[in-house]
Amino acid sequence: MVMLRYAVYRFFTMLLTLLVVSVLIFVIINLPPGDYLSNQIAELQASGQSAGVAKAEFLRKEYSLDRSLPEQYLIWIGFWPGPHGFEGLLQGNYGWSFEFDRPVREIVGDTLWLTVVVNLAAILFVYAVALPLGVLAAAKSRTWIDYTSAFVGYLGLATPNFLLALILFYYGHRYFNLPIGGLMDPSFEGQPMSWDKLKSILVHLIVPTFVIGTSGASAMMQRLRANMLDELGKPYVETAIAKGMAPSRMLTKYPLRVAFNPFVADIGNLLPSMVSGSVLVSVVLGLQTIGPTLLTALKTQDQFLSAFILMFVALLTLIGTMISDILLVMLDPRIRYEGREA
Amino acid sequence: MSALLSVRNLSIGFGKGPSVVQDVSFDVEPGQTLALVGESGSGKTISCRAALRILPRTAQIRSGTITLNDSRGTAELTQLSERQMRDIRGNRVSMIFQEPMRSLSPLHKIGNQVSEVLWLHRGASESEARKEVLTQFERVGFPDPARAYDSYPFELSGGMRQRAMIAMAMVSKPELLIADEPTTALDVTTQAQVLGLIKELQRETGMALILVTHDLGVVANMAEQVVVMHKGRVMEAGPAALILNDPAHPYTQQLFDAAPEIPDQDAVGMPMPDEDLILQMTGVSKTYTMRSSKGWRADKLIHACRGVDMKLARGKTLAIVGESGSGKTTAARIALGAELPDPGGEVLFRTNKEAEPLTVHNMTRAERTAFQRKAQMVFQDPYSSLSPRMRIQDAMTEPLEIHRLGTVAEQRDKAAEMLQRVGLNADMLKRYPHAFSGGQRQRLSIARAMMLDPALIVCDEPTSALDVSVQDQILTLLENLQDSLNLSYLFISHDLAVVARIADEVAVMRRGLVVEQAPPETLFYNPRHPYTKALIAAQPEPDINRPIDLKLVALGAGSPDSWDDAFRFSDTVIPSLVELEPGHKVRCHV
């Protein structure tokens, strides 16, 4: 019951935060002078192409760019009627991309969930690698196991991702026949989901997951090792040994539980850093994720496209923090019972 | 008949260094209690942990044998494999540790942690284990075993946690229990009750006990056999009665001399003089509000201090004694202006006899700066109260820099002078704190507090983290400084025996209230309040013929509802402090 109430409460605070974030995103995007269309109009007028000017003027009206900023914001979100009634994010209309001259929905379509898939895979990879290695390095601290894992870890941290991507591509293709570039075989693009398409995606995911996850995994491993070492010195570990527990069970039941909290709290932070950190990798690997699109949109002041992508990343982050907060409450009774009468 | 545990010529060392335990031998007979006595660094803890082979990773047993010979067979513990040791630990030999606050995992329920022993060693099912653990909980004195089973450690008090630890150690019915300073971290009255419990369980089950302690009083109450250790070697060993009555080794004698004791008194003492008061607290209360996590419930008020009146005359020592949570530290913080009393409370400070009193509860910024030069504090933990990154010289001159006093050279000279005053060398100024022992660090803290030439020093349990012999030295130092500089001390302690020596007046606090206030002589000669009586009775005396009177302890240390009608108080009805004889006040209904 306590948990459910907390989850509901947390969900509503998340919605509230999202609202605030949307204001921030809108303001920041509108900070630089001018917008895509007024820039274009100025350019067209300079070169004397009046037909184009008319179209741009039409778009300006169509997307309410001629109105005041607060009005623009409300129309964008869908709180206020635009030229064609309520047509904002809330109603599922993501706006128009001027740069690509297509609706935002069409541009981001597939890349949205591919981004989620790639980053989730990377996060799972980070946890799957960092957890056992971190615990092992702490349990065997100052032995060759510890030193080797630290060495490999620092190597992973220090190697630029795109370089790693290129190397892996070459050798992965040469020795394991892994596909090069993209997130699926080109023949599946635009096709409905099928078993073969899924298989193709999974095979294509191997290299990107590894590349995006390596540095995160080695950083997390080092922190987990340090946390575990702190915990291993605590008296309750001695108590557990004095009970006659086997080391592996003792490690996972007691110190790991305590040392694990910071990593649960990290889930929320991992998402945005991975999305923005993987832009370069996505370009190099030709992944159809949202990163490269965001880069173009920001460069050309394509406001609806970039605002939508930023909102999407913010949503992912907020969902991540919400999940980690709820998990923390489940994991740590000290948070759960704070204020409970003794 | 052979001994239950027989340790022969045990030597233990770290890495390549010299052995820290050398040639130690002792026997534990079935059902008996053996006390390993010594100061920190004596090797007593390492020796007893060697029996379970729970040693720091770099430590190794270099030579010697540890033979366990219980009803389940004979085992040479130094030769067993790790796997075989796991069957011994928690099963045939159990252990209780020093810090009940940190010896249980904060994230697992108590019941789960205790039952685990039965899952591991008996292969018991969840429900079987639960049943057995609940019985054990009842035996160690949990009022509501089922509730305790589902509690987390942070929901229990220190005494209750140590009871849970004892239950954990006892649930597998071992024939040998190793208790490593099991009561050092507890209040005196809780200590008395936990010791009583261990003794009772021992009588019931016939289990043998190795008790590691630095407190001869605890030894006198618990042990049949004593082994005194110093610097890794056994100094003296034999029956407790013999050693406690007539210590043969000079080191044992030294331990005896240093042990603080509540002296026998045959007269009342002189009350604290009423003139030239340096500090005066009148009607000081402090209420904290604990915000309720549930919106519809009222916030909870916590009365840390209720109507405290105290006077400290110049050059004297006022001691506040009480268990943790009694409000003694809050009172001291208010006296230092670190915390504001509730409206109505008054704290007055006079720099000298004629000076206008400074209202500590209501100071301007300038007044506060001036006050801070005159009132300083010495903290409890000498290990964490000095920054490990600052040289001694920087730590000591910092107060002068803050108050912009003197040139750099003058500041350094002052620091050197203060070091000499506290019995250290001026050439230690360039060192970092890690190069000093606990006692030396506490001297440094005192020297730092003295840098501004204060008139009042608040000492917050300055000796409770130290060995008895070091404690003795620090108390002597404080006395000497008081005599030569006419310092006034506000001394916070949970230990009546320490206070007996240094205080001119003692205020005993319980639940935010001063329950009895008198000069120490009067307090020990004629204690009136049941709680004071319990505190005095709970003090373990290093005399085998004067065991702790557990009944008296239980009577006074229980909740105020269980006291005699005359002393009872509740949240709403609080008797006032009545002066029974000059300088002797007791909170009672007259």
Automatic annotation (TrEMBL), chain A:
<feature type="transmembrane region" description="Helical">
    <location>
        <begin position="7"/>
        <end position="29"/>
    </location>
</feature>
<feature type="transmembrane region" description="Helical">
    <location>
        <begin position="201"/>
        <end position="221"/>
    </location>
</feature>
<dbReference type="Pfam" id="PF19300">
    <property type="entry name" value="BPD_transp_1_N"/>
</dbReference>
<feature type="domain" description="ABC transmembrane type-1">
    <location>
        <begin position="112"/>
        <end position="328"/>
    </location>
</feature>
<keyword id="KW-0472">Membrane</keyword>
<comment type="similarity">
    <text>Belongs to the binding-protein-dependent transport system permease family.</text>
</comment>
<dbReference type="Pfam" id="PF00528">
    <property type="entry name" value="BPD_transp_1"/>
</dbReference>
<keyword id="KW-1003">Cell membrane</keyword>
<dbReference type="InterPro" id="IPR000515">
    <property type="entry name" value="MetI-like"/>
</dbReference>
<dbReference type="GO" id="GO:0055085">
    <property type="term" value="P:transmembrane transport"/>
</dbReference>
<feature type="transmembrane region" description="Helical">
    <location>
        <begin position="151"/>
        <end position="171"/>
    </location>
</feature>
<dbReference type="InterPro" id="IPR045621">
    <property type="entry name" value="BPD_transp_1_N"/>
</dbReference>
<keyword id="KW-0813">Transport</keyword>
<protein>
    <submittedName>
        <fullName>Peptide/nickel transport system permease protein</fullName>
    </submittedName>
</protein>
<dbReference type="GO" id="GO:0005886">
    <property type="term" value="C:plasma membrane"/>
</dbReference>
<keyword id="KW-0812">Transmembrane</keyword>
<feature type="transmembrane region" description="Helical">
    <location>
        <begin position="304"/>
        <end position="331"/>
    </location>
</feature>
<feature type="transmembrane region" description="Helical">
    <location>
        <begin position="112"/>
        <end position="139"/>
    </location>
</feature>
<dbReference type="InterPro" id="IPR035906">
    <property type="entry name" value="MetI-like_sf"/>
</dbReference>
<keyword id="KW-1133">Transmembrane helix</keyword>
From TrEMBL, chain B:
<feature type="domain" description="ABC transporter">
    <location>
        <begin position="279"/>
        <end position="536"/>
    </location>
</feature>
<dbReference type="GO" id="GO:0005524">
    <property type="term" value="F:ATP binding"/>
</dbReference>
<dbReference type="InterPro" id="IPR003593">
    <property type="entry name" value="AAA+_ATPase"/>
</dbReference>
<dbReference type="GO" id="GO:0015833">
    <property type="term" value="P:peptide transport"/>
</dbReference>
<protein>
    <submittedName>
        <fullName>Peptide/nickel transport system ATP-binding protein</fullName>
    </submittedName>
</protein>
<dbReference type="InterPro" id="IPR050388">
    <property type="entry name" value="ABC_Ni/Peptide_Import"/>
</dbReference>
<dbReference type="InterPro" id="IPR013563">
    <property type="entry name" value="Oligopep_ABC_C"/>
</dbReference>
<keyword id="KW-0813">Transport</keyword>
<feature type="domain" description="ABC transporter">
    <location>
        <begin position="5"/>
        <end position="256"/>
    </location>
</feature>
<keyword id="KW-0547">Nucleotide-binding</keyword>
<dbReference type="GO" id="GO:0005886">
    <property type="term" value="C:plasma membrane"/>
</dbReference>
<dbReference type="InterPro" id="IPR027417">
    <property type="entry name" value="P-loop_NTPase"/>
</dbReference>
<dbReference type="GO" id="GO:0055085">
    <property type="term" value="P:transmembrane transport"/>
</dbReference>
<dbReference type="Pfam" id="PF08352">
    <property type="entry name" value="oligo_HPY"/>
</dbReference>
<keyword id="KW-0067">ATP-binding</keyword>
<dbReference type="Pfam" id="PF00005">
    <property type="entry name" value="ABC_tran"/>
</dbReference>
<dbReference type="InterPro" id="IPR003439">
    <property type="entry name" value="ABC_transporter-like_ATP-bd"/>
</dbReference>
<keyword id="KW-0472">Membrane</keyword>
<dbReference type="InterPro" id="IPR017871">
    <property type="entry name" value="ABC_transporter-like_CS"/>
</dbReference>
<keyword id="KW-1003">Cell membrane</keyword>
<dbReference type="GO" id="GO:0016887">
    <property type="term" value="F:ATP hydrolysis activity"/>
</dbReference>
<comment type="similarity">
    <text>Belongs to the ABC transporter superfamily.</text>
</comment>
